[in-house]
Design goal:
The complex is a heterodimer of chains A (about 160) and B (about 150). With about 160 residues, chain A is of the alpha/beta class. Chain A is built from four helices and seven strands, in the order βαββαβαβαββ. In chain B, helix 3 links the parallel strand 4 (about 65-70) and strand 5 (about 85-90). Classes of the chains: A alpha/beta (about 160), B alpha/beta (about 150).
């Protein structure tokens, strides 16, 4: 089972494109942790879809600080439950922050972690990207201009 | 003449009421406007609007001369891939500033117009009518094999 982790909007769009490419090579079993917005015609592509709250409020720093601990606890709980119910062979994420607690659990369980930095990043890594640059086994960027920011990064072209 | 220039304003999945409001109140004479307002609260008084649309890129290509878009990469790449004229306005009301990076990319590579202050939007619309932009060509993702090697 491949564990896919992606937030909403562009992050989800990118993980779906990755999932499609993996399906084309024969992989069929996917779990998805996301915020919302999976198109109805795609829900059958996943063994299970788990919806979580976003880690970071994009419009208010204050709301973010107040809610972070219970939201993080929920993320850890969700991830641990998935590992209990499924044999996970790899974690693949396009961010954003919900990849962080998931990757901590995967690292502790020695499960390979692959991270693809967002297609909207050209000149700086995201906060999640900086963390995943350290913890991931494979760190892929979609813009060559990011290669100079990470010794580990590999250029993968655009999803 | 002006009313024939078909313009779509697209804000993506996060609301941007102040943009819709500004264009609706100040620029509606510059073209025939349609608005994609997402989950926004403000609804425009001039021009038509909708919240979301499937097959969005094809819809844009078939119906508009130019798309004024927030800095969402999915929108921008999708529109550039079908050679749509774009005017990018990064949404700076967000806490994260990363819409700026793709705006700079579009500007540096001359793929379209970029607006950082709403006061310059009318000028960008005029420029887009005559504008000639570089053609975007996608370098496809090619690391699936490497990813598969990591699967236990």
């Amino acid at each position: 089972m491949i564990l896919l982790i992606a937030g909403r909007g562009g992050h989800l769009e990118q993980i779906i494109r990755l999932k499609d490419k993996l399906q084309a090579t024969g992989f069929e079993k996917f779990l998805l942790i996301t915020e919302y917005g999976v198109p109805k015609d795609l829900t059958n592509d996943f063994s299970e879809i788990i919806y979580v709250h976003e880690l970071r409020n994009k419009f208010s720093k204050r709301k973010y600080i107040l809610s972070i601990i219970p939201v993080l606890a929920d993320h850890f709980r969700t991830n641990l439950a998935l590992h209990k119910n499924y044999k996970i062979s790899m974690m693949l994420s396009t961010g954003p922050g919900l990849a962080i607690p998931a990757s901590i659990i995967c690292r502790l369980k020695k499960i390979p972690i692959v991270y693809v930095e967002s297609w909207s990043r050209f000149y700086s890594l995201s906060i999640t990207g900086k963390f995943m640059n350290i913890i991931s086994d494979l760190f892929i960027v979609q813009n060559k201009s990011l290669l100079k920011l990470s010794k580990k990064a590999k250029y993968g072209g655009r999803l | 003449m002006e009313v024939d220039y078909k313009i779509l304003v697209a804000v993506g999945t996060t609301p941007w009421d102040s943009l819709i409001n500004y264009i609706d109140k100040n620029l509606s004479n510059l073209g025939d406007f349609t608005y994609q307002i997402g989950n926004g609260k403000y609804t425009p008084n001039r021009g038509t609007y909708f919240r979301h649309k499937e097959n969005f890129i094809d819809y844009c290509k078939s119906n508009f001369d130019v798309v004024i878009t927030h800095g969402g990469a999915g929108n921008i790449y999708g529109l550039l891939e079908v050679n749509m004229k774009i005017i990018v306005i990064p949404n700076l009301e967000r806490v994260d500033g990363h819409q700026l990076e793709i705006a700079k990319f579009v500007q540096n590579e001359k793929y379209g117009e970029v607006v950082y202050h709403l006061e310059t939007l009318s000028e960008a619309i005029h420029k887009s009518k005559l504008g000639c932009y570089n053609k975007y060509s996608k370098d496809d993702f090619n690391m699936i094999r490497e990813i598969i090697e990591f699967i236990k």
